[in-house]
User: What shape does this take?
Amino acid sequence: MSEQVIFVASDGVARLQSEAARLAAIKVQGRVPDVCGDVIPQAPARGAYRVFEPKALYPDGEGGFEARSAGYRGRSAIQRADVFDVMAAKAARHNKASPLSPSQVAMGRHYRDLVERHACAGLKCSSIEAIRSGGSGRGGDFMDAVLRDREEIMRLRRRIGTGSAMVVRRIRPSQRGSRVSISDRRLLDMVCLEERALSDVLKAHGWSVYGETSQAVSKALGQALDRMNGLENVGQT
Assistant: This one.
């Protein structure tokens, strides 16, 4: 007799699914594409990822260099998809361009990595000592690196400003419902640091998710990232 698993949906409807079918579905989620070879393990818990072809510069025999594939045994590799990859993939599924430019995405990732590295500074990890202070291992160099990161974070946050991406106008509370204003800083932190989708940001602040609000919050995110890149007067509110 085959084993059966009972699933109860959010609407309270229960249904049966065979254990074999359930396990097969889990394995499909963790399947690694054939172009990546069989060295990368199957891992259903890995989550969303993107496939890319590693590149490196090699001598071209004429005094210059050329970019060629550098993957292990000529294979492609995979990388965990972050919130920016998910945004681009969602736009591509609807035949639309990515909502953020490459420079905006680069700044968002830089801000995320910077904050994460600074938050882990208390561990005095070797990566900070080697990368940020030249690998001397001296305590003073380590603290200098931590302070530099802190100063850069503060500088970037000053560029974000104190404006709001979405503002609740002066209307009666009974009419505006549970909506609250979304500050630019909170928008950036939810997307870049917490890896929340723009729809999650809207819902968390009581805003409905539809074309107009989604476009507005997406535009505000791009403008804030531009300001962090040094375009001081872009889209400030």
